[in-house]
Design brief:
single chain, membrane, transmembrane
Length: 118
Amino acid sequence: MTEVALLVAFCAVMGAVAIVKFALADERDPVDAGVILVVWGITVLAALWTALEEGWLVFEHHLLLAVVGIVLVGSGVAVMVVYWHHSPQSTPMRRRVAESGERAESTDHEANGDSPRQ
């Protein structure tokens, strides 16, 4: 087994873990979906590399793996780019950060005897 085959196995395990975490999450961030697509695209491209090194499959299958891998990576990057700079309310992580900042701000005002929103 070549080093590239180990890369395929590692990427497949990481991709499976990412899918399970994404599926079990209460709120899903679109950027995470893009990352999952990129990871699976890299997995498919590494599988293509392994198939080329080991002499597995025929040309048509190599072409299919190449197209699928490139489409997965490209669509994952596109999803990440589109959703990267959305407003703080648009993604769960940014909402949590914004809410924790508001709570810290209101605590500072309350300590000074001010009302949090004037």
